[in-house]
Amino acid sequence: MTEKSWMYAVLEAVQAEMRADPAMTWIFELTPPVASNPGMPVINLETEFGRRRVVNTGIDEMWMAAAVTGAGLAGSRAATYIPYQGAGMPFQIIQNHAGKLRHMTGGKASIPVVYVIELTGQTPGFAGQHSDYELDTAYAHIAGVRTVVPSTPYDAKGLMHAALRSPDPVVYLYPAGLRMLTEEVPDEPYEVPLDKAAVRTAGGDITIVSSGPGMPVVMEAAARLQAEGVGVEAIDLRALKEMDTETFVNSVAKTRRLLTVDMSYYTLCPGAEVIARTAENVEGARYKRIAFPDAPPPASPEMFLWMRPNADHVVAAAKRLIG
Amino acid sequence: MRPERDLAPAEARQADPTATSRRGFLRIAGLAGVSLSLVSAARRAEADIGFFAKDLPDDKLTAMFRTILRIRWHERTMADKMLSDPDYRGYNHFYAGQEAVAAGACAALRNEGPFEQIDLVYSTHRPTGHAIAKGVDLKKMCAENDFRATGLNGGYGAQMHLSDPAVGFIGADGMIGPGPVLATGSAFAIRARGSDQVVVFFGGDGTYATPHFHSALNNARLLDLPFIYVLENNLYHQYAHYSFSCPHTDIAEAARAYGIPARVVDGQDVFQVYNAMHEAVERARAGGGPGFIEAKTYRYYNHWGAPGAKVGELGAFGYDPLAISSFRPERELRSWMQRDPVDIARATLIDWGVLDAARAEAIEAEVRAEVAEAFAWAARQPLCNPEDGLRHVFAEGTVIARQFG
User: Fold this and answer.
1) Are A21 and A77 within 8 A, CB to CB?
2) Which sequence spans correspond to the domains of chain A?
3) What is the ipTM of this complex?
4) Distance (Å, rounded) from C-alpha A186 to C-alpha A183?
């Protein structure tokens, strides 16, 4: 166990999988697969595995996504790191090829690949195009592709191992704003399941469900509410598809109050799905969702910071729901 | 500086006398230690472009020099503010070093008149030079870059989304890819309505790798669109040398493969850029279809922001923590700064008798005062009203606040 940064923990997983499988490839564009950590060896996938397996491409995210998909169809495991400025470009490949080929071929096609897709939107100043938190909704909607979104370095590493070992294509959403988080992360490989939510705090008064970039906000709000004596069950979805329905349904069956928090746009945000599934299974609960308004994130910090969900919003909404 | 990756077959090189002569010249220059400034003269000779700039009136030539200076001092002032003023919030992808491309290209366009008649420019994530050259109001641009309510775009867009259709500046674009394809769509509309406007897309060497580059050129040729692709080859896309993403030494070769007339010009010489652009604009206006200009140029700052730069000094020589795997050699930057677009324009105009040194100095002083006032005006502008973030989603009305639950 060593205190590790998010990026180091993720690349440790990729390095271990690439050492174990000499056919596995990695394609990147802007973000070099390099990480350092105090007291640990520098990881540099490009120098360790060479440019035949680790490729720095031009700015062509469509190719990056298609290339790893094709690598999968040829029998190789492959992964690509698509930075936020191109995070929507691979959509057609993932939605209409990766998501459908296994089913369309009657189970013959297998695409054991990982699309690491950066999510940004945490920084005021970068308007619209460099803010793409809403893509969790788009990718989670696709059938046949698993979509996960870690919120801690420990989960980031474990989900990366599980994603790289999965026979299914996995969209691994990478909230760039959490990149600087550090925590104790085991040195050896381990898996975090691709279909299990995590209960972060236990409590009986209200269930708060979020994922990825929403979790720091939820954890801060949960701590403040707990300090005031409110029992908060904070749930980190981790997997948007297949979503772990049982965990949050069981929680709301107990608390009868569900608040969802998303950095995504309000319409069809992951919380909307969580509320719908809960309503189908739990009688008499109360619901509320917090999300980014259905507006592109503006550049101005005054507008952006007012629109972005924060811990104050979560605390206030939770109190109203309990109220 | 550039790796030799000329993949053209030997006979093609034979058929292109410019290729041989350039190589020959560079070899001689290297042996004799000849000043790099002579490369400009050699390229001018080999390119055999009609020398339209010679025939321009003095005020037009002086205006091109002034445009270069306005861009240069905007960039330098902004870099200094980013480095020294804790209250300043703007950022930039700096254009310094490339000024002659925007100034020379836009000088060949129709920039004044009704929207239905002026030429249109699509820009990039590095837009400030294009915006200034096309005629965007400097004060309002400065205010927008600092997220002010009275900025060019009300504080919604800032540096990567500057837009002013009133002067034909369709706008900046934070993405690499779709820009040229969108520009061909505008050109398509212009051709359909029988207008003689032209549409210009400025893009970097990084655009070559995108599928959009190839789609734009193919469709522009197939439909003979009034579309001009100005490719500013500053050697680096983000932090990677363009040889990582393009097999051509001259990206213009790719345009020729699509059947589009292409020129390679010295992007540090505003008059050479103007000459090539004038030729392409006249052809496109007359219905002769698209053109492609590759301007060899260089950016004095790193990809984003001002890491490695110092207050009061031009250029960024220091360490850029974002450039993890690919660095610009400092000597490469210093050698490009020997052929500075400001110096070349000034020396040419003095040589032509358009200006004398004192007049050139006076113009620069005027420009510095104008830029200083623009930043000062911007700093006095009001900040945005938070609730206005819910406006302008659709043509009318506001969307609902959802962040409170």
Assistant:
1) yes
2) 2-185, 198-322
3) 0.94
4) 10
What is chain B's alpha carbon radius of gyration, rounded to the nearest angstrom? 21
Residue length of chain B: 405
pLDDT at residue number B25: 36
Torsion of CA A83, A84, A85, A89, to 10 degrees: 80
Q: Which residue has the tokens 């696709």?
A: A142
Subunit contact B401:A293, Cβ cutoff 8 A:
yes
CA distance A119 to A148: 12
Mean pLDDT confidence for B376-396: 98
Chain A: nearest CA to B405, how far in angstroms?
Answer: 4
Identify any residues that bridge with A116 across adjacent strands, giving them in sequence order.
A81, A172
Looking at the domain that runs over A198-322, which CATH code has it been given?
3.40.50.920
Q: Say whether pLDDT at B13 is over 80.
A: no
> CB-based contact (8 Å) between A127 and chain B?
yes
pLDDT digits (tens, 9 = 90+) for A81-115: 998 878 999 999 999 999 999 999 999 999 999 99
Residue B77 pLDDT class (50, 70, 90 cuts): very high
Q: Do B384 and A85 touch (CB under 8 A)?
A: no
Report the alpha-carbon distance of residue A123 to residue B76 in Å, rounded: 25
Average pLDDT over residues A194-202: 98
Residues with Cβ < 8 Å from B189, sequence gap 6 or more? none
**Is the predicted pLDDT of residue B28 greater than 70, yes or no?**
no
**Residues of B whose CB is below 8 A from A317:** 404-405
Provide the CATH topology of domain A2-185: Rossmann fold (3.40.50)
- Residue A180, chain B, CB below 8 Å: the answer is no
- Could you tell me which residues come within 8 angstroms of residue A6 by beta carbon, excluding any fewer than 6 positions away? A153, A156, A178, A179, A180, A181, A182
Domains of chain B by start residue, with CATH:
43-379 (3.40.50.970)
Q: Which residues, in sequence order, are CB contacts of B359 under 8 Å at separation 6+?
A: none
